[in-house]
Specification:
With 147 residues, this protein is α/β, with parallel strands linked by helices. It has helices at residues 46-59, 74-81, 84-90, 104-116, 131-144; strands at 5-15, 20-30, 33-44, 65-71, 118-123. It has a domain at 5-74 and 118-144: Ribonuclease H-like superfamily/Ribonuclease H (Nucleotidyltransferase, domain 5). A hairpin with a 4-residue loop joins β1 and β2 (20-30).
Length: 147
């Protein structure tokens, strides 16, 4: 049995236009505590906001935890679970011999954070009534509208 604190994290990113003004939202739950985080950028992409939501949540943790991340981002989840992000890093941030991987700065940060925490990813369908996913979407959209 692990002695690490259990954390449930929910994330979402949004972008008005792609690229365009974007926002992200993250909810952290642990031991009866709930913390909401959000932010945005004036000119970004949906995938950058999805990645930023996960990074912000993991960065907010003060020590190594067991984290279950629930997200509607196949981009983030598949790149981690299928090993693509680690492969891109090993290949000098190239997807293949001709194509550069997108968002290497964020992937580098996320991969480093995944070395600190024990993380499990769960995918949920977006805009399908999942309460925390809907709230994260709301936070992300509110942030995107600030720009």
């Amino acid at each position: 049995m692990s002695t690490k604190k259990q954390v449930w994290m929910y994330t979402d990113g949004a972008c008005s236009g792609n690229p365009g003004p974007g926002g992200w939202g993250t909810i952290l739950k642990s031991g009866g505590h709930v913390k909401e985080l959000s932010g945005g950028e004036p000119n970004t992409t949906n995938n950058r906001m999805e990645l930023t939501a996960v990074i912000a949540g993991l960065s907010a943790l003060k020590y190594p935890c067991e984290v279950t991340i629930t997200s509607d981002s196949k981009y983030v989840i598949d790149a981690i679970q299928q090993g693509w992000a680690k492969k891109w890093r090993a290949q000098g941030w190239m997807r293949n011999k001709k194509e550069k991987a997108l968002n290497p700065d964020l992937w580098e940060t996320l991969l480093d954070l995944l070395d600190v925490h024990d993380v499990t990813f769960r995918w949920v369908k977006g805009h399908a009534g999942h309460p925390e996913n809907e709230r994260c979407d709301e936070l992300a959209v509110l942030e995107s509208k600030k720009f």
